[in-house]
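Appendix B: complex inputs.
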Amino acid sequence: MPELPEVETVTRGLTPVMEGFVVDHVVQRRPNLRFPFPENFVGRMAGRRINQLTRRAKYILGYLDDGQVLLVHLGMSGRMTIFDNPVVGVPAPAKHDHVDFVMQGGAVVRFTDPRRFGVITLIAANEVATHKMLAGIGPEPLGNSFNAAVLAAGIARRASPIKTMLLDQRLVAGLGNIYVCEALFRSGIAPDRLAKDLKQDEIERLYREIRLVLEDAIAAGGSSLKDHRQANGELGYFQHSFRVYGREGESCTADGCESVVGRIVQAGRSTFFCPTCQK
DNA sequence: CGTAGCACCTGTCAGC
DNA sequence: TGCTGACAGGTGCTAC
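Resulting structure:
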């Protein structure tokens, strides 16, 4: 379920077994995911120490000791699972287990992705800001460079519905379909409102709720998953409680609201909303 | 330039 | 049970 909070949770879960450790070797079981793996991926990873593991937007970045950066995107269905219990061992790879990172620290980190919309590649450290996949990505929503004024400037005069705009990673990084729906519900803004028509107080509410919904989700991941992982070692999946997402036809959770959650399709993607709470 | 739509893949579920 | 169609947490590319 990879939007920003899930990628953050996965990154935090991987850090104790990857950061500061040397990659003994990588097992690559197919030539491509969404894109081909980089030339000689296995050879270029072997023996490299991962100096630092961080997240930018929905990408996991592993800074290697030779100036390369391992870039991982989970796409729609990508998952990471840690195997570091010597008693249990490492299960035989299943159909969609495409890559294993075998760490000298003793852990095996397995990348699984049925739909293969994920990305694994290597870039140079000095390309992190300019590489095609990262250039143009907007501010981190939880960082200092994102605020109501930045959001206001980004949506000013834009003729797209606010829902569609918020999915655009150039405006703000890391929001996906779930948290856009949730943030709009929490701020009481109808998803089909045109971005340029939002009033200042609405933009400020939206800004606050974007931050809060993401912070809540990250906190939920940290508190409901011991070491950010489930008993089977899988990272980033935890019990969410969404107010509108996936709740079409169910009653609105707002106090005193008698309405039923609706669903519309915008830019080809489902939007869940309360027709009464969101104006 | 801004915007919309398609493409990439596989799995799951509802309905017949 | 088997088939079909709709749908799924993302994003790059192309065409208007």
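The first strand of chain A starts at residue 23 and ends at 28.
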